[in-house]
Amino acid sequence: MTTAAATAVTRPASGRRPKAAKGRVTVNVVMVAMILYFLLPFWWLLVASTKGNDALFSTAALWFHSPGSFFDNLKQLFTYNDGEYLRWLGNTAVYAGVSGIGATAVATLAGYAFAKYRFRGRNLLFSSLLGAIMVPATALAIPTYLLLSKVALTNTMWAVILPSLLNPFGVYLMRVYVQESLPDELLEAARVDGAGELRTLRSVALPTLKPALVTVLLFSMVGTWNNFFLPLVMLNNDKLFPLTVGLQSWYQGALIQSGANALFTLVIAGSLVAILPLIVAFLLLQRYWRGGLTVGSLK
User: How far apart (Å, rounded) are the C-alpha atoms in residues 156 and 248?
Assistant: First the structure.
């Protein structure tokens, strides 16, 4: 009876192991497929940036043809039209940097206030904020343009920076993170020791919120760096263009102007260079970014 009982106990376990192994294999296959899906456009961009204009349309799309053309494309990219690309790159850095830091500051103060202070209308305001997350940014571009045109701020850098300072998802993320990671007892202890509200925020709260700050900063900077429709609506002066709008203008020029086909290689090389700062920023800050997402969203 003892042997039979042991067999009865071990049978379900031996039956679960193949199922568990099969499940892990399925998950790994799906993960590999997703990785290839996301890496394929980057691989195509990398390969295409090493080709000349003729080879771009006549050789295999996913393999190198003349790697030495990569440096020629870069040289032409940075010198075309008096270094126009570098000016757009600088504009994009200004838009993303100022908007990212400003949006992080606004989201931190708003999220801290929603999480730690009790005031009339708090739930109504936060519900409105959650509703704002569902509104596509493109739907607000035209109303924002009309508002900024009233104060003569269109076709200026502020027309791109000011709307980017408001990040409803960042406020939501900061509120959740503050609630879960910053106990009220810690703030009360700082107040008992004589710290004011600003001192408590600066010396006690902000060091604790570092992962969430980096997460919101990255989200805001990447969102502004990749923003296309808002600058397209707001800006007419090509000297104020970010990379997204500038590269689109080159692409349109390559399509409609005879003899401008060489611009295709510049658009591809420019697109590759444009994403390199984002990759570097992600690699340097991924430890904080992953921690902010995990703690702030799951606890």
Answer: 19
